Amino acid sequence: MKVLVIGGDGYCGWATALHLSSRGYEVGILDSLVRRNWDAQIGVETLTPIASIHQRIQHWQNLTGKKIELFVGDITNYDFLSKALRKFSPESIVHFGEQRSAPYSMIDREHAVLTQVNNVVGTLNIIYAMKEDFPDCHLVKLGTMGEYGTPNIDIEEGYITIEHNGRKDTLPYPKQPGSFYHLSKVHDSHNIHFACRIWGLRATDLNQGVVYGVLTEETGTDELLVNRLDYDGVFGTALNRFCIQAAIGHPLTVYGTGGQTRAFLDIRDTVRCIEISLNNPANSGEFRVFNQFTEQFNVLDLAIMVKKAAGALGLNVEIQNLANPRVELEEHYFNAKNTKLIDLGLQPHYLSESLIDSLLNFSIKYKHRVDEQQILPKVSWR
């Protein structure tokens, strides 16, 4: 299968491109490389030093003999996107090409607008290009569990059957996003769903939880192929931040009470979920939704797990509560369904098994690269 990975220079995209290439897919990467520019703009760096995309791809080819075709450009430029698709002629498109940070989208008006234009317009361009030239192509789009918010009822996989005034229907699950970034993902879902209904396109929307880990089978083979580990207050996750803080002896900073519960999965499960979705495509006219995660934790649970794992490595760390810069419920019900990918064959990895090897060991190895000025939150939702 010919698969174009849009956003293939990013965290999930790079791991996915290598995973698919290693398994015999003909892979192309399309990326504007803007993620690296955003780091430079806000003065941060990933903890792990990553090579340029050209070096990465060439090194992969040298090691494996497998070629990955590269297209550098912006998907908000429809002319570029259309030409790139026609040249590569994909059978499937994996779409990671979006600004993915909630804090980044909440910095100010400019960053909110950039996020929504980049994400919504880019996705609209993809579905129009598919309609015009590749109507049979299968779109696998990375969504987010953050589209749902934290409702006081169980979260279903994309759709919910309701009864109202004596009538019954199955409808898209209500969305309560918590940032302008998450709102952009909701708009994407609505636009793709609409395109599937009226044009007969086929798409799988993967509402992914928080991804963790550096290692996949491919990215762990050579340091030139290593993946990102973002820990800063804009692009980093709470779990990454805790691991870096443990490595340098900084207290683990829990926002508010730490009762915020979210869904999580290992990066190795992310790439496998993509492969499963590609091998079991949606039908023509179908907008399919999978909740892509394996476990649920609250923030305080994560801090306690990191403290315990760090202790096993001889690191003595404390937990510290900070005022929450976000506007969110800190204690809430959260029970999300995630059976569809499991039913299709996903065999999950669990955080308890990979916390030390795929996070803490990397945090310790590269702790000399930590910028302590970037650890604490700088963006307020208010």
Topology (SSEs and partners):
Elements: E1 2-6, H1 11-22, E2 26-31, H2 34-42, H3 53-64, E3 69-72, H4 78-88, E4 92-95, H5 102-105, H6 109-133, E5 138-144, E6 159-164, E7 167-172, H7 180-199, E8 202-208, E9 210-212, H8 238-248, E10 252-255, E11 261-266, H9 267-279, E12 287-292, E13 295-298, H10 299-312, E14 319-322, H11 340-343, H12 351-365
Parallel strand pairs: 1-2, 1-4, 2-3, 4-5, 5-8, 8-12, 9-11, 10-14
Antiparallel strand pairs: 6-7, 11-13
Q: What features would you describe in this structure?
A:
The chain is α/β, with parallel strands linked by helices and 382 residues long. The chain has a single domain, classed as Rossmann fold (3-Layer(aba) Sandwich), CATH 3.40.50.720. Helices cover 39% and strands 19% of the residues. The chain is built from twelve helices and 14 strands. A seven-stranded parallel sheet has the order 3-2-1-4-5-8-12, with helices on both faces. Strands 9-11-13 form a three-stranded mixed sheet. It has a two-stranded antiparallel sheet with strand order 6-7.
List keywords for this structure.
382 residues; alpha/beta; Rossmann fold; three-stranded mixed beta sheet; 12 helices; 14 strands; 39% helix; 19% strand
CATH class term: Alpha Beta
Order of helices and strands: EHEHHEHEHHEEEHEEHEEHEEHEHH
Q: What fold name stands as the CATH topology?
A: Rossmann fold
Q: Give the structural class.
A: alpha/beta
Q: Strand order of the main beta sheet, please?
A: 3-2-1-4-5-8-12
CATH superfamily (homologous) name: NAD(P)-binding Rossmann-like Domain
Q: Terminal Cα separation, in Å?
A: 47 Å
Low-confidence stretches: none
Q: What is the name of the CATH architecture?
A: 3-Layer(aba) Sandwich
Number of helices: 12
Number of strands: 14
Mean pLDDT: 98
Radius of gyration: 20 Å
Biggest beta sheet summary: 7 strands, parallel
- The fraction of residues in strands falls at 15-25%
